[in-house]
């Protein structure tokens, strides 16, 4: 499967659930109202960071980072060969991870990697 197809499938099918209280909690309560079921929230492709890793461990390895939307729009040539791994950033991102993956960001400094890192994940760029 080429990476663009993989990212498009993620955009169409992947969903996350909000954390909820344990279902093993006591069922006897004073409230007669049923607890609401958690609602699945689809990943927002313009606000979810991810990385593609191809041919890792070889002299021609290739890393590409960006939002899911940016990565889904790339051609197979942009990824440079067989896909090895896809990494989707969860709820937390360390500044070192932001900096390292930012080296491979779609659009470089003008891409959305840095903006989403700051606005969505709350991580500022480190200045060394």
Give an overview of the whole structure.
Helices cover 27% and strands 19% of the residues. The protein has 128 residues and is of the alpha+beta class. The protein has a single domain, classed as Tetrapyrrole methylase, C-terminal domain (Methyltransferase, Cobalt-precorrin-4 Transmethylase, Domain 2, 2-Layer Sandwich), CATH 3.30.950.10. The strands form two sheets. The protein has a three-stranded antiparallel β-sheet with strand order 4-3-5. The protein has a two-stranded antiparallel sheet with strand order 1-2. The radius of gyration is 18 Å and the shape is globular.
Short key terms for the protein model shown above:
Methyltransferase, Cobalt-precorrin-4 Transmethylase, Domain 2, alpha+beta, single chain, 128 residues, three-stranded antiparallel β-sheet, two-stranded antiparallel ribbon
Largest sheet: 3 strands, antiparallel
Spatial order of the strands forming the largest sheet = 4-3-5
Separation of the first and last Cα atoms: 39 Å
| Beta-strand share of residues | 15-25%
SS class: alpha+beta
Report the mean per-residue pLDDT as an integer. 78
CATH level-3 fold name: Methyltransferase, Cobalt-precorrin-4 Transmethylase, Domain 2
Task: Give the topology.
Elements lengths: L2 H11 L1 E3 L22 E3 L6 E6 L7 E6 H5 L3 H4 L3 E6 L6 H8 L10 H7 L9
Antiparallel strand pairs: 1-2, 3-4, 3-5
Quick recap:
The protein has 128 residues and is of the alpha+beta class. It has a single domain (3-15, 42-119), classed as Tetrapyrrole methylase, C-terminal domain (Methyltransferase, Cobalt-precorrin-4 Transmethylase, Domain 2).
